[in-house]
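**Paired protein data**
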Amino acid sequence: MKQLAITFATALLCGNIFAQQYDVCVYGGTSAGVIAAYTAAKLHKSVILIEPGRHVGGLTTGGLGYTDIGNKYAISGVSRDFYRRVGQHYGKFEQWIFEPHVAEKIFKDYLTSGGVTVLYQYRITEAVKQDCWLKQITVEKAAAPATTTNKIITAKMFIDCSYEGDLMAKAGVSYIVGREANNTYNETYNGVQLREKHQFPDGISPYKIEGDSASGLLWGISTEKLLPNGTGDTKEQTYNYRICLTNDVANKIDITQPANYDPTKYELLLRLIFKTKPQNIASFLNISLMPNHKTDINNIGAFSTDMIGMNYRYPEGTYAERNEIQAAHETYNKGLLYFIGHDSRMPAYLRSQMLQWGYPKDEYTDNGNWSPQMYIREARRMKGAYVMTQANCESRETVTDGVGMAAYTMDSHNCERIVLNGMVKNEGDVQIGGFGPYPVSYRCLIPKPDDCKNLLVPVCLSASHIAYGSIRMEPVFMVLAQSSAAAACQAIDANQAVQQIDVVKLQGLLKENPLMDGSTPEVLADNDDSTSITITGNWQRKTSGGYGPSWLSSPTQNPGSVVFRPHIKKAGAYNLYTYIPAIDNAAAQTNYTIFDGKNEKKVSITSNIRVEGQTSGEWVALGRYNFSEGKQATVTIQSNLQQGTISADAVLFVPAK
């Protein structure tokens, strides 16, 4: 207590207006940070959100607009509401691809409506803990650090939503950096992995003079020897930028040569192009198209926007070291774009394709039209009360204390670029999918009790490297952040440590009040819920694509039906939607019979849906109905007596506003 009292008194002498008690302190204004702060505020707690930069939203506003979903079934609560609000902006039910400035406006709307205090451009320097309880943190002005402008933040509960886990580390919580060995958690895809995807073809020389090892290695190639597959190390999967460009001439700024430009960094790209003879720049720039003629560009292939091997010092680096690493990544990515469009050694047709793109005038207007957020795919990972592993991803081990779901492929980008048998190779890329949504444990969001009793960590959560690769998606971070904030509020109300809360009660809150505003929750009737479905005829269960773990397929000339019978807990008007997976040989139309408890209506929809983004299907509107309370209402999908396949997956009842 003496140390705490002295620090607090010093803050008061400095005129520290923030030296006061908050219920909840959220560190890191990422997408997760915004949702955590909003959730705590909606649960009637005083909240401060601390963001080291000038923007909120993290990668979701920083260029990653082509959302990594995995399966929409896994996205719930306020996270799903965010994508519904994006949809409203673009005139749709929901939307998973969007412009950066649109996402940031929506996040700011959450903070404003929640009355959240936001402290921009401050970063943590110290944390004070007593008897395993985090009492306060000290933050400094990021742009111009000085003790006279430091602020002390005290709170009952803390939530670390930063990509780096800086609050967690300052609080003395156990964590790991890098890749565990496979034998640590009995996994098969952890540690060193030399695999086939995003890989150089055989025969590309790593040397400055091709075939001459005495000439030295090209830039970006490590001298380290390849270790056996499954070996653990401290290397991190590579970082890059998710790049927003436009080909709208009226909104385009030409890509110019960046400061410190070094064309020798892109020699390997020339050799790759000479070897593979690509027809399009999409072979080495993953260009996902966004609304209003914009892009979300990500890494693809053997040589692209990933700056492989140049991020190892970042997770534990000082703020100055991190700034240098981020600046290097920015220069590399800008230089790559310039090189493709202007270097005379590039094929003319590829240069021409690149020159149609430029920086958008209406994005990142305070940062030279370039994203301020580097893609930090992975940094520190907490060693918490429970560790999510490959077994969880593959549902060989299922937790009962799930407070969110994940569904994405176990995805790691490359970690190093090496020489193997006189050829250049990438190492570390893993992309293993084929599994359905799975629950994420509450215990992986909290430290061990001996580490800290009032901290939750939904971003740098407790997971092995390869399991983290599946969980680490922006919508999932938002889901887990909401759960963390709700848990923090529950712990405050019960005067408990985060390890002591009633998880069943928390799960109930997330289900009954998913938007944290007391509104009526939507009702889902899914084919995997045996209590809400009746099947007649020869329907086949498909586990690839669809909404949730599976969907039902009716082949041609199959008499029968699927009847969805939801449990409507509150009578009223609902907008009704059906989920249509994108399938081959789909029937021209699907026939539905909707019974609202009193009246019956028949609706037919065409199956030629347009699927946008990383998803397997879309919600299609069936109209607005007044449904009675109980289980009288039904939605019946008739099987197909014509040509083509009929799908029966899920129906959704959204309370009309």
In short: The CA atoms of residues 205 and 597 lie 71 Å apart. The first helix runs from residue 2 to 13. The longest strand covers residues 617-627.
